[in-house]
Amino acid sequence: MGKIALVIGATGLIGRNLVFELLKNPNYTQVIVLVRRDMVIKHEKFTQIMLDFSQLKNYEDKIVADHVFCCMGSTSAKTPDKENYRRIDFDIPLQIAEIAFRNGAQSFLLVSSMGANLQSSIFYSRLKAELEVAIEKIGFKTVFVLRPSLLLGNRLESRPLETITQYLMRVMNPIFIGPLKLYKAIKGETVAKALMHAALSEKIGNNLILNNEIFELADAAK
């Protein structure tokens, strides 16, 4: 029987690539996205739910899937207020995870960050780690946490500083071999492939996937 996938953060670099990967994959019969704006995608398997994320309780009956993918994430430049940042990066994903679990979801896949650490002095890194822990405590049969390094790819929104960093990392990427592959910049498309491959493996328990392992998962998906 085909799987139903639900994606939050579908308009971002990883999420957008993931949606297209899921739509192409015959193992998925429906791909649901929760978004604030129209993704302008027409596909027989695609279901778009445009909503106000502050009113998730009004959409609980629609948050139903086998595999839930979270690719949400803001930046300090885009969301300087820490309270609002926490709402976007922690509260919303956790609330959706809890609703999906109550509605029968088996797997939750979370895009975190390479620097995620509960002891970090950096708010962003600490918050990512807090979300990882909170998701793992819900009770899903399977949880995958992916911690990619710097992401490469074209975003819909402009991030000038990140664009410069991406250029530098593309030049330097060839030297990141062996143990250094943990820090190698990675394409959003590569992370998306790894997410889908991990979900379909249906490996049980809490699974942490570091940057070098994301490359391996994506290669296995080819």
Q: Which CATH first-tier class would you pick?
A: Alpha Beta
Instruction: List segments where confidence is low: pLDDT < 50 over at least 5 consecutive residues.
Output: none
Indicate the structural class: alpha/beta
The largest β sheet comes out as: 7 strands, parallel
List the total number of helices: 6
Can you tell me the CATH architecture? 3-Layer(aba) Sandwich
Q: What is the CATH fold-level name?
A: Rossmann fold
* Rounded Rg: 17 Å
What does the overall shape look like?
A: globular
| Mean pLDDT rating | 89
Helix content: 25-40%
How much beta, percentage-wise? 15-25%
> Whole-Å distance between the termini?
22 Å
Number of strands: 9
CATH superfamily: NAD(P)-binding Rossmann-like Domain
Strand order of the largest sheet: 3-2-1-4-5-6-9
Number of domains: 1
Q: H/E order of the elements?
A: EHEEEHEHEEHEHEH
